Amino acid sequence: MECTVSWTGATGARSGMGFLAETGSGHVLVMDGAPDEAKPENGGQNLAPRPMETMLAGAGGCTAYDVVLILKRSRLDVRGCSVKLTSERAPTDPKVFTKIHMHFTVTGKDLTDKAVERAIALSHDKYCSGTIMLGKTAEITTSFDLLSPDDK
Q: Is the pTM of this model over 0.85?
């Protein structure tokens, strides 16, 4: 796997802190920093997600992918899956994630709490490299709501 990240503010009067990531699979991701009122030259323009937000989003995508795949491979009728991540970071540099909570909302026909709980646990403990990696510095907790298609 590879990725090239380039600073987009290397030219022009207003340098900013924008970055363009080009992935090995041929996709592009834009990132930017938060504005810094005290030192505008050090801040971003708030035009895209922060790099740490993309890391959190990547972990969410990784674990949601696993949950859906595990349920489908169990021949269960999963119809929707979302995960809301909330996090806390260390107050000083390096400001690593210290706590991450993942709340899943899973929709499906005839799904059971036990099946969803198992899928989340397998992702969290065995398959999701993103959350397992972040778990080296952060306490990761999970919860879920299970909805039937009729609940929408």
A: yes
